[in-house]
Amino acid sequence: MVTRKKLDRRTRIKYRVRKKVQGTAEKPRLSVFRSNKTIYGQIIDDLQGRTIVSASSNTIESGEKKLTKSEKAREVGKVLAEKAREAGIENIVFDRNGYLYHGRVKSLAEGAREGGLKF
Description:
The chain is built from three helices and four strands.
């Protein structure tokens, strides 16, 4: 279980980041949520308050081989980029949502870059 102190710290960091990062129709925000098992990403237009595109590691099919959590995160980033390009989105701003930029969060961002998103 996540301790209250750790959750409060992440919430403070999240609000600090969100003061600077805002998604528009031309340049929406890619927000990341990481749980113990899965990782979620969604591209959001903050002006209209709606999610344009979303993907999670639950929707990724790994086939025969077992993927690590970081590999799944990279695949989620690629799927997000593919869906975003279909929706006509090329440039985004990245919202790490209070998480440190390493591990699965970094893998998701790299996968999105490989898929063609610019940020």
